[in-house]
Amino acid sequence: MTGGQTYEGGTLAVHLLFGLLVLGATWAAGTAVRERRESLRRAIEQAAEQAKVEERMRIARDIHDVVTHSVGLIAIKAGVANHVVATRPEEAREALTVIEEVSRRALRDMRATLKVLRREPGGEAQDLRPVRGLPDLPSLARTAEAAGVRVDLRTDRAEEPPDGVALAAYRIVQEALTNVVKHAAPTRCLVRVTAREGVLTIDVTDDGPGPGRRAAVPGGGMGIVGMAERAAAHGGTLTAGPRPGADGFRVLGTLPY
User: Fold this and answer.
1) What CA–CA distance (Å, rounded) separates 144 from 175?
2) Per-domain boundaries in the chain
3) CATH classification of 136-257 is 3.40.50.1110, yes or no?
């Protein structure tokens, strides 16, 4: 009898211990699930916030590109028109034509950018952004030439890069030419853009004044930073600085795709 009672008591203890283990395991599993859910929630919130920051930076770069490129050229050509309107009216008329064309293009780009800012959450954005790419580079060259820069544009596209990379390249060339117009014009500028073996290379050089003799323009300073950010956003690199052993400036960027 005594042996049987001891056995039954031991069985009960085992059952109680097993029950406690099950309860403990269930509680631990529930806690782990809750922690994973909380961690996932925080990760989603952080990703959403990072996306907002990146979107704001992209929009800021787009606005900067439109404003500095277009308004800078408008200011230059307006000065030319004002200077020659009495003595060379034909040249003044050409300057006003450039102002009209640049203004219209700037308005189109700015409206497209503002639509992105006003779109409803979840709305489609791909149709709202200005679609710019490598085929639009000749337009940038013509605009710079109208501002007094002789541009030699050379493109070699063995491949067609993705739209995002092409847009980044367009904006980098746009900013580089804007800097030439603002700081070095009148001068010559060579723009080479190649796309092959998964890398898009942008090389913009001018033969303008050397360091210390380039024109200073109020409000500058963000252009090179913006170009570098665009390159970095696609895993690329960008360098900008005086040409070694020669006058002028060089912007060199690579964008892998």
Assistant:
1) 11
2) 1-130, 136-257
3) no
